[in-house]
Structures are given as C-alpha cells and as structure tokens.
Design brief:
mainly beta, 4-stranded antiparallel sheet, 10 strands
Length: about 130
C-alpha cells in the first residue's frame, strides 16, 4: 500500500476535520475520538464539498442538502433535508417550482462516501488512495 503524508496529527483535534489534497484527489480528514478517518471530500448525493459541512461525533452533514453520513464507514445514515418553500414567504409560482425541484432532487441516488485508509505514524497523518 502506498502511503502519502498529509500533515501532523496535532493539526486536527478530536471533533475537527480538514480538507487536503492527495495526489490530485480532494480528501477530507476527520478526527473522531482521536482516530483519523479519510474520505473523498464530496457528498455522495450531488458532489458538494463535505469539508464545508458539519461534523458531529461520527456524523458528517452535507452543507448542500443535509444528507448525513457516518464518517467512519461512509454509509448514508439520513436522506436529504430540504427547506419548506412555503415557510420562505415566496410567491405561489416559486413555491410550485421549488416543490417540483425538491421532488426531483429527492430521487437522486445517495452513494456511500468513498473511504480511504488513514493512519497516524510518528505523529504524521498518512493516507492511502489504494
């Protein structure tokens, strides 16, 4: 397995995450209870950068549509959470447009996250894309 050093272990505190580049691939590192996990920095729904989302324990929430994943396994835990357009005070025509868009978006498949091997060795974080 080919390992690439991507930073220092002390750079990512427990409960934090950090995007890094690994051989041209956008990777998201997350520290969950002192263990580093690595995944592709893209949501399995519509390719949004997960690094702009929220990490809460093992759960990472997509910043675009609110899909929730387990950062330790990559599995999708919760589907999309879209705003209710009727609560936005929009004109009726726009509400209808948003409803139709939400129906379509809700049918887009949510793939699991692409996970990568990660480890801490000698105080350094290493990732393998293999």
């Amino acid at each position: 397995m080919k390992w690439v050093e991507v930073g220092n272990a002390h750079d990512i505190a427990p409960g934090q995450m950090k995007p890094v580049g690994v051989e041209g691939v956008e990777v998201l590192l997350a520290n969950v209870d002192g263990k580093i996990y690595a995944c592709r920095d893209r949501c399995g729904h519509q390719n949004a950068p997960l690094s702009m989302g929220r990490l809460d324990g093992r759960k990472i929430t997509c910043p675009l549509h609110g899909a929730v994943f387990d950062i330790t396994t990559g599995q999708n835990l919760e589907g999309l959470k879209l705003a209710n357009p009727q609560e936005m005070g929009l004109p009726k025509e726009m509400i209808e447009m948003f409803k139709r868009t939400m129906e379509i978006v809700a049918k887009v498949k949510i793939d699991p996250l692409k996970m990568y091997a990660a480890e801490i060795r000698d105080g350094k974080i290493r990732v393998s894309l293999e």
